[in-house]
Amino acid sequence: MNKKQVVKRNITVDASKDHVWKVLTEPEQTKKYMFNAEVYSDWKVGSPIKWKGEYEGYVSAEQGIILQFEWQKYLKYTSFDPNFGLEDIPENHLHISYELIEKGQQTDVLINVINFNGDRNRTEGIAKHWDSLVLSKFKKVFKNEETVNYKVKPLSADNAASFVEYFESLDFSHAPLWSTCFCRYYHTTYTEKEWKNRTGLENRSEALKEIKAGNMKGYLAFDGDKCIGWCNANDARQFIRLENDIKHIIKDKKVGCVICFTIHPEYRGNGVARLLLNEAVEGFKQAGFDAILAIPTVAKDSSEKLYRGTMNMYKEKGFREIEKDTDMSFMLLSLNDKL
What whole-number distance in Å separates Cα of residue 183 and Cα of residue 162? Predict the structure, then answer.
């Protein structure tokens, strides 16, 4: 006897397929509609997928396996959360799929949630849960987005004070060493012990000195007069800590590098990092660079650790993966035919 029961939903949103895919697969986006839970996976068939987050006392333990994956078209995975008291056996694992069909300025999202254990009450509960809680918030992600005129300015002596004040205002309790960094780490060759012994005042002073000298470069994002984001973007040779990792890539070419994004918590998920990346790419083009290097990390346990930017945002700009290490990817955007 076939016990399979399917909850099917088809919704249309006023957004591109690329945008919808981002909302489905990026941690800072999923927390907006999936009970404050961030999704983590490397998005390869057979790999784990899990959600981490807390919502009104509920701590998500949901996890599963990627069953099918077609970039920006189709995603299917298993899902099981032990918090609901069911035995951890295959028939109690849901199969959830999303299919995206772009139609002009809109995208149809076809959603299937399959329950294999034959419990109709469970299936009805799933339907109610998705309709009233998940999908209602999912739609609002697109409906409530406003076109905000954030401004991006290149880092300079004129806004150096805004730069240091911005870093001093942020809560780095999740990574205390970051509170003293002032984005100097990759510009140095201190040993780990020496770096940990440096004070925030030392790094702050060094940052101001290098900004005024024109050696430290990047972009600041503003909402009115409020600084809301930072992107460290410079000639790759300025990041001397990375020299041994990238010298075989840049060789004798003029290569820029985007290495760090720091977005104000209140503005995450609003496209600020992408806006900063766009400005960095345009800046490198105007300066006659041959290519731009990005080195995003795979951080499955915390969205804050995706400070180098996500693979999705780089792929959207045309970066291609040229090498892969254990927990990071080397991605390159060629600006001419030299690289």
Answer: 14
Query: Is residue 261 helix, strand or coil?
Result: strand
Evaluate if pTM is beyond 0.70: no
Q: Rounded CA gap, 40 and 29, in Å?
A: 11
| 151-334 under CATH 3.30.390.10, yes or no | no
Strands 106-115 and 94-103: antiparallel
Superfamily of domain 5-143: START domain (3.30.530.20)
Q: What is the pLDDT of residues 151-180, one digit of tens each?
A: 999 999 999 999 999 999 998 877 788 899
- Report the distance separating Cα 145 and Cα 133, nearest Å: 19
CA geometry: angle at 152 spanning 147 and 155, to 5°? 165
Structure-token match 């006023």, residue found: 14
Q: What sections of the chain are H helices per DSSP?
A: 17-25, 27-30, 120-129, 135-143, 160-169, 192-197, 200-213, 243-250, 272-286, 311-316
Residue 146 has pLDDT above 50, yes or no: no
Domain-by-domain residue ranges, the chain? 5-143, 151-334
86-92, long-range: CB < 8 A, 24+ apart? 86/117, 90/116, 91/3, 91/116, 91/117, 92/116, 92/117
pLDDT band at 59 (very low <50, low <70, confident <90, very high): confident
Condensed to tens digits (0 to 9), the pLDDT of residues 80-100 reads 988 888 888 999 999 999 999
pLDDT of residue 47: 95
CB 291 within 8 A of CB 338: yes
How many other β-carbons are positioned within 10 Å of the β-carbon of residue 46? 8
Distance between CA atoms of 79 and 195, rounded to whole angstroms?
42
